[in-house]
Amino acid sequence: MAFINHSQVRSAVNSSPIAPKPRRIRNRVYRRCAKDGFDDRMKAELAGEVPAQPRLYSHHSTRQYYFNIGWQAVTEMHILRAKQRQQAQPLMRSHLGASKQGGVQ
Length: 105
Description:
With 105 residues, the protein is mostly helical. The chain contains four helices and no strands. The mean pLDDT is 84.
């Protein structure tokens, strides 16, 4: 009978990751395609004109694939944060403009 040190045994439940980490796109060209897809979707969401399908980015199928990956990566949290930033920018501009005009001489 083999002796098992129970302090070294790990449960499969506790040692497995909760969710797999998203893999980073290593190719800079394809990473740019995904970033363009993400940015286009954010612009469309902020404008309120989201098409049913992403636009044709490239006739190159791999680049179009990564563009679609970026397009689909936008979550509700991304949209909410972008809307909050968009609403906060006019307030910051008006605040900065008022402080420049009323500065001490």
